[in-house]
Amino acid sequence: MFTSPHPDVEIPDLSVYDTLFGGIAPSDLDRIALRDGTTGAETSYRQLIGQINALAGALAAAGIGVGDVVALHAPNVPAFATVFHGILRAGATATTVNGLYNAEEIEAQLRDAGATMLFTVSPLLPQAWAAASACGIPSDRVVVLDGAEGHASLSDLLLRRLPAPDVSFDPATHVAVLPYSSGTTGRPKGVMLSHRNLVANVQQSIPQLGMVADDRILAVLPFFHIYGMTVLLNLALSRRASLVTMPRFDLAEFLRIIQDFRCSYVFIAPPIAVALAKHPLVDEFDLSSVHTIFSGAAPLDATLGRAVEERLGCRMRQGYGMTELSPVSHAIAFQAEGASLDSVGTTLPNMQCRIVDPETGAEVDYPAEGSDEESAAGELLCAGPNVMLGYLGNEEATRETLEDDGFLHTGDIATVRGDGTVRIIERLKELIKYHGYQVAPAELEALLLGHPAIADAAVIGVLDDEGQEVPKAFVVLQPGQDVTAEALMAWVTERVAPHKKIRRVAFVDAIPKSASGKILRKDLRAAEATPAGS
Ligand code: 4UW
Protein backbone atom coordinates (compact mmCIF):
# COMPACT_ATOMS: atom_id res chain seq x y z
CA MET A 1 0.00 0.00 0.00
CA PHE A 2 1.00 3.65 -0.11
CA THR A 3 0.15 6.36 2.37
CA SER A 4 -0.19 10.09 2.41
CA PRO A 5 3.06 12.03 2.00
CA HIS A 6 1.69 14.42 4.63
CA PRO A 7 2.01 13.96 8.39
CA ASP A 8 -1.05 12.64 10.21
CA VAL A 9 -3.46 15.16 11.68
CA GLU A 10 -5.21 15.05 15.06
CA ILE A 11 -8.88 14.02 14.89
CA PRO A 12 -10.83 15.18 17.93
CA ASP A 13 -13.19 12.64 19.48
CA LEU A 14 -16.11 15.08 19.27
CA SER A 15 -19.39 15.61 17.48
CA VAL A 16 -19.55 17.76 14.34
CA TYR A 17 -21.14 20.60 16.33
CA ASP A 18 -18.56 20.53 19.12
CA THR A 19 -15.68 20.39 16.63
CA LEU A 20 -16.96 23.24 14.50
CA PHE A 21 -18.55 25.56 17.02
CA GLY A 22 -17.74 24.27 20.52
CA GLY A 23 -14.56 26.24 21.02
CA ILE A 24 -15.26 29.25 18.81
CA ALA A 25 -13.12 32.25 19.74
CA PRO A 26 -15.19 35.22 20.97
CA SER A 27 -13.47 37.35 18.32
CA ASP A 28 -14.93 35.11 15.58
CA LEU A 29 -18.55 35.40 16.71
CA ASP A 30 -19.20 38.61 14.80
CA ARG A 31 -17.61 37.38 11.59
CA ILE A 32 -20.06 36.74 8.79
CA ALA A 33 -20.66 33.00 8.38
CA LEU A 34 -23.15 33.24 5.50
CA ARG A 35 -24.12 35.79 2.91
CA ASP A 36 -27.17 35.20 0.76
CA GLY A 37 -25.84 35.86 -2.75
CA THR A 38 -29.35 36.65 -4.00
CA THR A 39 -30.51 39.10 -1.31
CA GLY A 40 -27.22 40.08 0.36
CA ALA A 41 -28.62 39.15 3.82
CA GLU A 42 -25.86 38.35 6.32
CA THR A 43 -25.72 35.80 9.15
CA SER A 44 -22.92 36.09 11.71
CA TYR A 45 -21.36 33.10 13.46
CA ARG A 46 -23.10 34.28 16.66
CA GLN A 47 -26.49 34.24 14.90
CA LEU A 48 -25.82 30.92 13.18
CA ILE A 49 -24.84 29.19 16.42
CA GLY A 50 -27.88 30.68 18.18
CA GLN A 51 -30.17 29.39 15.43
CA ILE A 52 -28.58 25.92 15.40
CA ASN A 53 -29.16 25.58 19.13
CA ALA A 54 -32.71 26.95 18.97
CA LEU A 55 -33.59 24.54 16.19
CA ALA A 56 -32.07 21.62 18.11
CA GLY A 57 -34.24 22.67 21.07
CA ALA A 58 -37.39 22.75 18.92
CA LEU A 59 -36.55 19.35 17.41
CA ALA A 60 -36.02 17.86 20.86
CA ALA A 61 -39.38 19.30 21.99
CA ALA A 62 -40.97 17.56 18.98
CA GLY A 63 -39.45 14.30 20.14
CA ILE A 64 -36.69 14.21 17.53
CA GLY A 65 -33.26 13.04 18.69
CA VAL A 66 -30.82 10.15 18.56
CA GLY A 67 -32.22 7.43 16.30
CA ASP A 68 -34.43 9.72 14.19
CA VAL A 69 -33.81 10.60 10.57
CA VAL A 70 -34.75 14.07 9.32
CA ALA A 71 -34.74 14.90 5.60
CA LEU A 72 -33.41 18.20 4.31
CA HIS A 73 -34.55 19.15 0.83
CA ALA A 74 -33.57 22.69 -0.11
CA PRO A 75 -31.32 24.64 -2.48
CA ASN A 76 -28.27 26.53 -1.17
CA VAL A 77 -29.72 29.21 1.09
CA PRO A 78 -28.20 30.34 4.43
CA ALA A 79 -30.98 28.56 6.39
CA PHE A 80 -29.67 25.24 5.02
CA ALA A 81 -26.69 25.58 7.38
CA THR A 82 -28.98 26.20 10.37
CA VAL A 83 -31.15 23.19 9.63
CA PHE A 84 -28.29 20.86 8.74
CA HIS A 85 -26.31 21.61 11.89
CA GLY A 86 -29.49 21.86 14.00
CA ILE A 87 -30.46 18.29 13.07
CA LEU A 88 -26.99 17.01 13.97
CA ARG A 89 -26.94 19.10 17.17
CA ALA A 90 -30.20 17.43 18.26
CA GLY A 91 -28.54 14.03 17.84
CA ALA A 92 -30.68 13.10 14.83
CA THR A 93 -29.41 11.96 11.43
CA ALA A 94 -29.76 14.24 8.39
CA THR A 95 -30.58 12.77 5.00
CA THR A 96 -30.04 15.41 2.33
CA VAL A 97 -32.27 15.23 -0.74
CA ASN A 98 -31.46 16.55 -4.22
CA GLY A 99 -33.60 19.66 -4.85
CA LEU A 100 -34.12 18.56 -8.46
CA TYR A 101 -35.89 15.33 -7.51
CA ASN A 102 -39.51 14.65 -8.45
CA ALA A 103 -42.06 13.34 -5.92
CA GLU A 104 -41.32 9.66 -6.62
CA GLU A 105 -37.57 10.15 -6.23
CA ILE A 106 -38.01 12.04 -2.94
CA GLU A 107 -40.43 9.39 -1.67
CA ALA A 108 -37.96 6.58 -2.45
CA GLN A 109 -35.28 8.29 -0.36
CA LEU A 110 -37.62 9.19 2.54
CA ARG A 111 -38.81 5.58 2.75
CA ASP A 112 -35.38 4.02 2.45
CA ALA A 113 -33.86 6.37 5.02
CA GLY A 114 -36.85 6.02 7.37
CA ALA A 115 -37.25 9.79 7.62
CA THR A 116 -40.00 11.00 9.98
CA MET A 117 -39.64 14.72 9.38
CA LEU A 118 -38.82 16.87 6.36
CA PHE A 119 -37.52 20.41 5.86
CA THR A 120 -38.11 21.99 2.45
CA VAL A 121 -38.72 25.38 0.78
CA SER A 122 -42.00 26.71 -0.64
CA PRO A 123 -41.05 26.37 -4.36
CA LEU A 124 -40.30 22.67 -3.78
CA LEU A 125 -43.28 22.03 -1.47
CA PRO A 126 -45.63 20.37 -4.02
CA GLN A 127 -43.26 17.45 -4.73
CA ALA A 128 -41.95 17.35 -1.13
CA TRP A 129 -45.46 17.21 0.34
CA ALA A 130 -46.61 14.56 -2.15
CA ALA A 131 -43.64 12.42 -1.12
CA ALA A 132 -43.96 13.06 2.62
CA SER A 133 -47.69 12.37 2.77
CA ALA A 134 -47.21 9.16 0.75
CA CYS A 135 -44.78 8.06 3.50
CA GLY A 136 -47.20 9.00 6.28
CA ILE A 137 -45.25 12.07 7.45
CA PRO A 138 -47.90 14.48 8.86
CA SER A 139 -48.11 18.13 7.77
CA ASP A 140 -46.79 19.41 11.11
CA ARG A 141 -43.62 17.44 10.44
CA VAL A 142 -43.09 19.08 7.08
CA VAL A 143 -41.39 22.38 7.85
CA VAL A 144 -41.16 24.98 5.09
CA LEU A 145 -38.08 27.16 5.63
CA ASP A 146 -39.68 30.26 4.15
CA GLY A 147 -43.21 29.37 5.32
CA ALA A 148 -46.35 28.03 3.60
CA GLU A 149 -49.95 27.67 4.71
CA GLY A 150 -50.58 24.57 6.79
CA HIS A 151 -46.92 24.06 7.70
CA ALA A 152 -44.55 25.40 10.33
CA SER A 153 -41.83 27.73 9.09
CA LEU A 154 -38.23 27.76 10.28
CA SER A 155 -38.78 31.06 12.09
CA ASP A 156 -41.79 29.56 13.96
CA LEU A 157 -39.43 26.94 15.37
CA LEU A 158 -36.58 29.35 16.11
CA LEU A 159 -38.85 31.87 17.84
CA ARG A 160 -39.66 29.29 20.50
CA ARG A 161 -36.09 29.87 21.74
CA LEU A 162 -35.88 26.46 23.37
CA PRO A 163 -32.49 25.45 24.74
CA ALA A 164 -30.55 22.76 22.86
CA PRO A 165 -30.90 19.34 24.48
CA ASP A 166 -28.10 17.46 26.17
CA VAL A 167 -27.44 14.56 23.86
CA SER A 168 -24.81 11.92 24.18
CA PHE A 169 -23.57 9.50 21.56
CA ASP A 170 -20.33 7.96 20.37
CA PRO A 171 -19.02 10.13 17.50
CA ALA A 172 -17.29 7.09 16.00
CA THR A 173 -20.45 5.03 15.52
CA HIS A 174 -23.34 7.51 15.53
CA VAL A 175 -24.63 8.23 12.02
CA ALA A 176 -24.57 11.99 11.41
CA VAL A 177 -25.68 12.02 7.79
CA LEU A 178 -27.20 9.75 5.17
CA PRO A 179 -26.43 11.14 1.73
CA TYR A 180 -27.42 8.85 -1.16
CA SER A 181 -24.96 7.35 -3.62
CA SER A 182 -25.19 4.44 -6.02
CA GLY A 183 -21.58 3.50 -5.22
CA THR A 184 -20.01 1.01 -7.60
CA THR A 185 -23.27 -0.63 -8.71
CA GLY A 186 -27.06 -0.54 -8.48
CA ARG A 187 -29.51 2.06 -7.23
CA PRO A 188 -28.79 4.93 -4.83
CA LYS A 189 -28.10 3.72 -1.29
CA GLY A 190 -27.94 5.56 2.03
CA VAL A 191 -24.28 6.16 2.90
CA MET A 192 -23.85 6.01 6.68
CA LEU A 193 -21.31 8.66 7.66
CA SER A 194 -20.54 9.05 11.35
CA HIS A 195 -19.72 12.24 13.19
CA ARG A 196 -16.14 11.00 13.27
CA ASN A 197 -16.13 10.51 9.48
CA LEU A 198 -17.18 14.13 8.92
CA VAL A 199 -14.91 15.57 11.62
CA ALA A 200 -11.96 13.56 10.26
CA ASN A 201 -12.49 14.72 6.70
CA VAL A 202 -12.54 18.36 7.77
CA GLN A 203 -9.26 17.94 9.68
CA GLN A 204 -7.69 15.89 6.87
CA SER A 205 -8.60 18.49 4.23
CA ILE A 206 -7.27 21.53 6.06
CA PRO A 207 -3.60 21.14 5.06
CA GLN A 208 -4.33 20.72 1.33
CA LEU A 209 -7.34 23.02 0.87
CA GLY A 210 -5.91 25.92 2.85
CA MET A 211 -8.96 28.09 3.57
CA VAL A 212 -8.63 31.03 5.93
CA ALA A 213 -11.07 33.21 7.84
CA ASP A 214 -10.74 36.04 5.35
CA ASP A 215 -11.83 33.85 2.45
CA ARG A 216 -15.18 34.52 0.86
CA ILE A 217 -16.18 31.20 -0.54
CA LEU A 218 -18.78 30.88 -3.26
CA ALA A 219 -21.23 28.15 -2.31
CA VAL A 220 -22.73 27.18 -5.65
CA LEU A 221 -22.08 23.43 -5.36
CA PRO A 222 -25.15 21.96 -3.74
CA PHE A 223 -25.02 21.47 0.03
CA PHE A 224 -27.07 18.27 -0.26
CA HIS A 225 -24.16 16.55 -2.07
CA ILE A 226 -21.22 15.43 0.03
CA TYR A 227 -18.77 17.77 -1.78
CA GLY A 228 -20.73 20.89 -0.78
CA MET A 229 -21.61 19.43 2.62
CA THR A 230 -18.05 18.75 3.76
CA VAL A 231 -16.05 21.36 1.91
CA LEU A 232 -18.51 24.25 2.33
CA LEU A 233 -20.87 23.61 5.27
CA ASN A 234 -18.22 21.95 7.45
CA LEU A 235 -14.70 22.88 6.35
CA ALA A 236 -15.33 26.53 5.42
CA LEU A 237 -17.31 27.15 8.62
CA SER A 238 -14.60 25.44 10.71
CA ARG A 239 -12.12 27.94 9.24
CA ARG A 240 -14.47 30.86 10.10
CA ALA A 241 -14.59 31.79 6.43
CA SER A 242 -17.67 33.37 4.87
CA LEU A 243 -19.95 31.37 2.55
CA VAL A 244 -21.76 33.24 -0.21
CA THR A 245 -24.76 31.11 -1.16
CA MET A 246 -26.20 30.65 -4.62
CA PRO A 247 -29.34 28.52 -4.99
CA ARG A 248 -28.79 27.35 -8.58
CA PHE A 249 -26.12 27.76 -11.24
CA ASP A 250 -26.62 30.49 -13.80
CA LEU A 251 -23.43 31.81 -15.44
CA ALA A 252 -24.29 35.53 -15.37
CA GLU A 253 -25.48 35.35 -11.76
CA PHE A 254 -22.43 33.27 -10.78
CA LEU A 255 -20.11 35.92 -12.24
CA ARG A 256 -22.10 38.77 -10.71
CA ILE A 257 -21.95 37.23 -7.24
CA ILE A 258 -18.18 36.66 -7.48
CA GLN A 259 -17.76 40.29 -8.52
CA ASP A 260 -20.21 41.92 -6.09
CA PHE A 261 -19.21 39.86 -3.04
CA ARG A 262 -15.49 39.82 -3.91
CA CYS A 263 -15.35 36.01 -3.63
CA SER A 264 -11.82 34.68 -3.21
CA TYR A 265 -12.19 30.89 -3.29
CA VAL A 266 -14.57 29.10 -5.64
CA PHE A 267 -15.38 25.38 -5.64
CA ILE A 268 -16.75 24.04 -8.89
CA ALA A 269 -17.39 20.94 -10.97
CA PRO A 270 -15.79 20.69 -14.44
CA PRO A 271 -18.72 22.01 -16.57
CA ILE A 272 -18.28 25.40 -14.84
CA ALA A 273 -14.60 25.33 -15.84
CA VAL A 274 -15.73 24.96 -19.48
CA ALA A 275 -17.81 28.14 -19.15
CA LEU A 276 -15.02 30.02 -17.35
CA ALA A 277 -12.51 29.13 -20.07
CA LYS A 278 -14.72 29.79 -23.08
CA HIS A 279 -17.76 31.96 -22.45
CA PRO A 280 -17.64 35.62 -23.64
CA LEU A 281 -19.68 36.79 -20.60
CA VAL A 282 -16.67 36.12 -18.36
CA ASP A 283 -14.89 39.21 -19.75
CA GLU A 284 -17.71 41.49 -18.62
CA PHE A 285 -17.12 40.95 -14.88
CA ASP A 286 -14.35 41.87 -12.46
CA LEU A 287 -13.17 38.52 -11.09
CA SER A 288 -9.87 39.83 -9.68
CA SER A 289 -10.83 38.84 -6.12
CA VAL A 290 -10.55 35.11 -6.96
CA HIS A 291 -7.26 33.53 -5.86
CA THR A 292 -8.22 29.84 -6.25
CA ILE A 293 -10.70 27.72 -8.17
CA PHE A 294 -11.00 24.14 -6.99
CA SER A 295 -12.61 21.53 -9.23
CA GLY A 296 -13.85 18.10 -8.30
CA ALA A 297 -16.66 15.54 -8.72
CA ALA A 298 -15.64 14.59 -12.28
CA PRO A 299 -12.42 14.63 -14.36
CA LEU A 300 -10.98 18.06 -15.13
CA ASP A 301 -9.14 18.35 -18.42
CA ALA A 302 -5.65 19.74 -17.65
CA THR A 303 -5.58 22.06 -20.70
CA LEU A 304 -8.99 23.41 -19.77
CA GLY A 305 -7.79 24.00 -16.21
CA ARG A 306 -4.75 25.93 -17.47
CA ALA A 307 -6.98 28.04 -19.72
CA VAL A 308 -9.08 29.02 -16.70
CA GLU A 309 -5.95 29.92 -14.70
CA GLU A 310 -4.67 32.12 -17.50
CA ARG A 311 -7.96 33.82 -18.24
CA LEU A 312 -8.76 34.60 -14.60
CA GLY A 313 -5.21 35.03 -13.33
CA CYS A 314 -5.85 32.65 -10.43
CA ARG A 315 -4.67 29.21 -9.39
CA MET A 316 -6.63 26.14 -10.43
CA ARG A 317 -6.65 23.02 -8.31
CA GLN A 318 -8.32 19.63 -8.44
CA GLY A 319 -9.58 17.26 -5.78
CA TYR A 320 -11.03 13.78 -5.88
CA GLY A 321 -13.34 11.96 -3.60
CA MET A 322 -16.56 10.05 -3.26
CA THR A 323 -19.58 10.13 -0.98
CA GLU A 324 -18.40 6.94 0.75
CA LEU A 325 -15.13 8.74 1.69
CA SER A 326 -16.88 11.71 3.34
CA PRO A 327 -15.74 12.61 0.50
CA VAL A 328 -12.21 14.00 0.06
CA SER A 329 -9.37 11.50 -0.37
CA HIS A 330 -7.03 13.31 -2.78
CA ALA A 331 -6.28 16.92 -3.59
CA ILE A 332 -3.65 19.03 -5.28
CA ALA A 333 -2.36 21.13 -2.43
CA PHE A 334 -3.38 24.73 -2.49
CA GLN A 335 0.29 25.69 -1.88
CA ALA A 336 1.71 23.50 -4.72
CA GLU A 337 2.58 26.33 -7.12
CA GLY A 338 2.87 25.14 -10.71
CA ALA A 339 1.39 21.74 -9.88
CA SER A 340 0.33 19.77 -12.91
CA LEU A 341 -3.43 19.47 -13.32
CA ASP A 342 -3.20 16.01 -14.86
CA SER A 343 -3.54 14.40 -11.44
CA VAL A 344 -5.93 14.69 -8.51
CA GLY A 345 -2.97 15.42 -6.23
CA THR A 346 -1.73 13.53 -3.24
CA THR A 347 -3.46 11.32 -0.68
CA LEU A 348 -4.90 13.11 2.35
CA PRO A 349 -3.31 12.64 5.78
CA ASN A 350 -4.32 9.60 7.89
CA MET A 351 -5.17 7.60 4.75
CA GLN A 352 -3.78 4.49 3.11
CA CYS A 353 -4.35 3.48 -0.51
CA ARG A 354 -3.89 0.45 -2.70
CA ILE A 355 -3.99 0.04 -6.44
CA VAL A 356 -5.04 -3.47 -7.47
CA ASP A 357 -5.71 -5.37 -10.66
CA PRO A 358 -9.53 -5.38 -10.83
CA GLU A 359 -9.60 -8.93 -12.24
CA THR A 360 -7.10 -10.70 -9.96
CA GLY A 361 -6.98 -8.38 -6.95
CA ALA A 362 -3.14 -8.41 -7.18
CA GLU A 363 -1.55 -5.21 -5.98
CA VAL A 364 0.61 -3.28 -8.47
CA ASP A 365 4.27 -2.38 -7.79
CA TYR A 366 4.68 1.18 -6.57
CA PRO A 367 7.43 3.45 -7.91
CA ALA A 368 10.27 4.41 -5.59
CA GLU A 369 9.47 7.52 -3.54
CA GLY A 370 10.62 10.63 -5.33
CA SER A 371 11.17 8.85 -8.67
CA ASP A 372 9.64 10.01 -11.95
CA GLU A 373 7.99 6.66 -12.49
CA GLU A 374 4.30 5.83 -12.51
CA SER A 375 2.69 2.59 -11.35
CA ALA A 376 0.56 0.36 -13.53
CA ALA A 377 -3.13 1.26 -13.54
CA GLY A 378 -5.60 -0.58 -11.32
CA GLU A 379 -8.57 -0.04 -9.06
CA LEU A 380 -7.97 2.48 -6.28
CA LEU A 381 -8.83 1.31 -2.75
CA CYS A 382 -8.76 3.70 0.20
CA ALA A 383 -8.71 3.28 3.97
CA GLY A 384 -8.83 5.88 6.73
CA PRO A 385 -11.01 7.59 9.33
CA ASN A 386 -13.18 9.12 6.59
CA VAL A 387 -14.36 5.75 5.20
CA MET A 388 -18.14 5.27 5.67
CA LEU A 389 -19.63 2.90 8.21
CA GLY A 390 -21.56 1.12 5.43
CA TYR A 391 -24.73 1.34 3.33
CA LEU A 392 -27.96 1.62 5.30
CA GLY A 393 -29.81 -1.68 5.41
CA ASN A 394 -27.73 -3.19 2.64
CA GLU A 395 -25.11 -5.51 4.01
CA GLU A 396 -24.51 -7.13 0.66
CA ALA A 397 -23.57 -3.84 -1.01
CA THR A 398 -21.46 -2.92 2.03
CA ARG A 399 -19.58 -6.24 1.84
CA GLU A 400 -18.94 -5.78 -1.89
CA THR A 401 -17.55 -2.28 -1.39
CA LEU A 402 -15.78 -2.40 1.95
CA GLU A 403 -13.08 -5.01 2.64
CA ASP A 404 -12.73 -6.47 6.15
CA ASP A 405 -9.43 -4.63 6.58
CA GLY A 406 -11.17 -1.27 6.07
CA PHE A 407 -10.22 -0.65 2.42
CA LEU A 408 -13.03 0.77 0.29
CA HIS A 409 -13.34 0.00 -3.42
CA THR A 410 -13.63 3.30 -5.27
CA GLY A 411 -14.56 1.73 -8.60
CA ASP A 412 -12.08 4.12 -10.25
CA ILE A 413 -8.96 3.09 -12.16
CA ALA A 414 -5.88 5.04 -11.08
CA THR A 415 -2.09 5.16 -11.05
CA VAL A 416 0.33 6.63 -8.50
CA ARG A 417 3.60 8.36 -9.32
CA GLY A 418 6.85 8.50 -7.36
CA ASP A 419 5.95 11.99 -6.12
CA GLY A 420 2.77 10.58 -4.53
CA THR A 421 0.34 12.11 -7.02
CA VAL A 422 -2.57 9.96 -8.11
CA ARG A 423 -4.03 10.03 -11.59
CA ILE A 424 -7.61 8.88 -12.20
CA ILE A 425 -7.55 7.12 -15.57
CA GLU A 426 -11.13 5.98 -15.99
CA ARG A 427 -14.22 4.80 -14.18
CA LEU A 428 -14.65 1.08 -13.76
CA LYS A 429 -18.02 1.29 -11.98
CA GLU A 430 -21.41 1.85 -13.60
CA LEU A 431 -21.92 5.35 -12.22
CA ILE A 432 -22.42 8.25 -14.64
CA LYS A 433 -21.68 11.84 -13.63
CA TYR A 434 -23.79 14.50 -15.34
CA HIS A 435 -22.39 17.94 -14.42
CA GLY A 436 -21.01 16.34 -11.24
CA TYR A 437 -24.41 14.89 -10.24
CA GLN A 438 -24.74 11.13 -9.83
CA VAL A 439 -26.81 9.22 -12.36
CA ALA A 440 -27.29 5.51 -11.59
CA PRO A 441 -27.63 3.48 -14.81
CA ALA A 442 -29.51 0.75 -12.90
CA GLU A 443 -32.29 3.22 -12.12
CA LEU A 444 -32.66 4.35 -15.75
CA GLU A 445 -32.45 0.78 -17.05
CA ALA A 446 -35.29 -0.31 -14.73
CA LEU A 447 -37.35 2.65 -15.91
CA LEU A 448 -36.70 1.92 -19.61
CA LEU A 449 -37.69 -1.73 -19.13
CA GLY A 450 -41.08 -0.45 -17.97
CA HIS A 451 -41.69 1.15 -21.38
CA PRO A 452 -44.10 -1.04 -23.40
CA ALA A 453 -42.03 -0.90 -26.60
CA ILE A 454 -38.71 -1.84 -24.95
CA ALA A 455 -37.45 -5.43 -24.68
CA ASP A 456 -34.03 -4.67 -23.15
CA ALA A 457 -31.91 -1.65 -22.31
CA ALA A 458 -28.51 -0.56 -20.98
CA VAL A 459 -27.27 2.90 -20.05
CA ILE A 460 -23.68 4.17 -20.01
CA GLY A 461 -21.97 7.56 -19.93
CA VAL A 462 -20.57 8.99 -23.19
CA LEU A 463 -18.74 12.26 -23.80
CA ASP A 464 -20.44 15.22 -25.48
CA ASP A 465 -18.70 17.82 -27.67
CA GLU A 466 -17.39 19.65 -24.58
CA GLY A 467 -15.84 16.46 -23.21
CA GLN A 468 -18.51 16.21 -20.47
CA GLU A 469 -20.28 12.96 -19.64
CA VAL A 470 -23.94 12.45 -20.63
CA PRO A 471 -26.22 9.40 -20.19
CA LYS A 472 -26.77 7.31 -23.34
CA ALA A 473 -29.27 4.46 -23.64
CA PHE A 474 -28.83 1.37 -25.81
CA VAL A 475 -32.30 0.02 -26.50
CA VAL A 476 -33.65 -3.23 -27.94
CA LEU A 477 -37.23 -2.79 -29.15
CA GLN A 478 -39.95 -5.41 -28.80
CA PRO A 479 -40.69 -7.14 -32.14
CA GLY A 480 -42.96 -5.02 -34.32
CA GLN A 481 -42.59 -1.92 -32.13
CA ASP A 482 -41.51 1.43 -33.45
CA VAL A 483 -40.57 4.43 -31.34
CA THR A 484 -38.23 7.32 -32.12
CA ALA A 485 -35.22 8.31 -30.01
CA GLU A 486 -36.87 11.70 -29.37
CA ALA A 487 -40.09 10.09 -28.11
CA LEU A 488 -38.12 7.80 -25.79
CA MET A 489 -36.05 10.65 -24.40
CA ALA A 490 -39.20 12.71 -23.79
CA TRP A 491 -40.82 9.74 -22.03
CA VAL A 492 -37.85 9.40 -19.66
CA THR A 493 -37.67 13.16 -19.09
CA GLU A 494 -41.22 13.16 -17.72
CA ARG A 495 -40.24 10.60 -15.10
CA VAL A 496 -36.85 11.68 -13.71
CA ALA A 497 -34.99 14.68 -12.32
CA PRO A 498 -33.42 16.78 -15.12
CA HIS A 499 -29.83 15.58 -14.54
CA LYS A 500 -30.94 11.97 -15.14
CA LYS A 501 -32.35 12.67 -18.61
CA ILE A 502 -31.24 10.29 -21.35
CA ARG A 503 -29.44 12.55 -23.83
CA ARG A 504 -28.49 9.98 -26.51
CA VAL A 505 -30.23 6.83 -27.74
CA ALA A 506 -28.97 3.99 -29.94
CA PHE A 507 -31.26 1.20 -31.13
CA VAL A 508 -29.44 -2.13 -31.08
CA ASP A 509 -30.29 -5.79 -31.74
CA ALA A 510 -29.04 -7.07 -28.38
CA ILE A 511 -27.42 -5.86 -25.16
CA PRO A 512 -24.04 -7.53 -24.59
CA LYS A 513 -24.25 -9.61 -21.41
CA SER A 514 -22.01 -11.96 -19.46
CA ALA A 515 -22.96 -15.60 -18.86
CA SER A 516 -24.46 -14.54 -15.52
CA GLY A 517 -26.62 -11.90 -17.22
CA LYS A 518 -24.63 -8.81 -16.21
CA ILE A 519 -24.54 -6.01 -18.76
CA LEU A 520 -21.08 -5.84 -20.34
CA ARG A 521 -20.68 -2.08 -20.07
CA LYS A 522 -17.04 -2.39 -21.13
CA ASP A 523 -18.17 -3.68 -24.53
CA LEU A 524 -20.67 -0.86 -24.93
CA ARG A 525 -18.01 1.69 -24.00
CA ALA A 526 -15.49 0.12 -26.39
CA ALA A 527 -18.02 0.21 -29.23
CA GLU A 528 -18.68 3.85 -28.38
CA ALA A 529 -14.97 4.70 -28.57
CA THR A 530 -14.70 3.13 -32.04
CA PRO A 531 -15.94 5.56 -34.70
CA ALA A 532 -18.94 4.25 -36.65
CA GLY A 533 -18.04 2.42 -39.85
CA SER A 534 -14.47 1.59 -38.78
N1 4UW B 1 -11.58 13.18 -11.30
C1 4UW B 1 -12.21 12.09 -11.82
C2 4UW B 1 -12.01 13.77 -10.18
C3 4UW B 1 -13.17 13.24 -9.55
C4 4UW B 1 -13.80 12.12 -10.15
C5 4UW B 1 -14.88 12.64 -8.35
O1 4UW B 1 -20.88 11.89 -6.14
P1 4UW B 1 -19.68 11.18 -5.63
O2 4UW B 1 -19.88 10.08 -4.67
O3 4UW B 1 -18.69 12.18 -4.88
C6 4UW B 1 -18.05 13.25 -5.45
C7 4UW B 1 -17.10 13.95 -4.63
C8 4UW B 1 -16.35 14.97 -5.15
C9 4UW B 1 -15.34 15.72 -4.44
C10 4UW B 1 -15.12 15.54 -3.17
C11 4UW B 1 -14.10 16.28 -2.45
C12 4UW B 1 -13.33 17.24 -3.19
O4 4UW B 1 -12.43 17.91 -2.63
C13 4UW B 1 -13.61 17.40 -4.51
O5 4UW B 1 -12.91 18.30 -5.18
C14 4UW B 1 -12.53 19.54 -4.67
C15 4UW B 1 -14.60 16.65 -5.10
O6 4UW B 1 -18.28 13.60 -6.59
O7 4UW B 1 -18.90 10.64 -6.89
C16 4UW B 1 -17.69 9.94 -6.75
C17 4UW B 1 -17.10 9.64 -8.10
O8 4UW B 1 -16.95 10.83 -8.88
C18 4UW B 1 -15.79 10.72 -9.71
C19 4UW B 1 -15.18 9.35 -9.39
O9 4UW B 1 -15.65 8.40 -10.31
C20 4UW B 1 -15.70 9.09 -8.00
O10 4UW B 1 -15.69 7.71 -7.63
N2 4UW B 1 -14.86 11.79 -9.39
N3 4UW B 1 -13.87 13.53 -8.44
N4 4UW B 1 -11.38 14.83 -9.72
N5 4UW B 1 -13.31 11.55 -11.28
Name a few traits of the molecule.
single chain, 534 residues, alpha/beta, nine-stranded mixed sheet, five-stranded antiparallel sheet, 15 helices, binds ligand 4UW
Brief synopsis:
Helices cover 29% and strands 23% of the residues. The strands form 6 sheets. It has a 9-stranded mixed sheet, sandwiched between helices. The model has no long low-confidence stretch (mean pLDDT 96).
Q: Going across the major beta sheet, what is the strand order? A: 3-2-12-11-13-14-15-16-17
What is the tally of beta strands?
Answer: 27
Protein structure class = alpha/beta
Q: Please describe the biggest sheet, giving its number of strands, its sense, and whether it closes into a barrel.
A: 9 strands, mixed
Report the principal-axis shape. globular
Q: Into which percent range does the helicity of residues fall?
A: 25-40%
Radius of gyration over C-alpha positions, nearest whole angstrom: 23 Å
Mean pLDDT score, rounded? 96
Which ligands occur here?
ligand 4UW
Q: Which stretches are poorly predicted, pLDDT < 50 over at least 5 residues? A: none
Number of helices: 15
Protein name: Acyl-CoA synthetase (AMP-forming)/AMP-acid ligase II
Family: Belongs to the ATP-dependent AMP-binding enzyme family.
InterPro entries: AMP-bd_C, AMP-bd_C_sf, AMP-binding_CS, AMP-dep_synth/lig_dom, ANL_N_sf
Keywords: Ligase
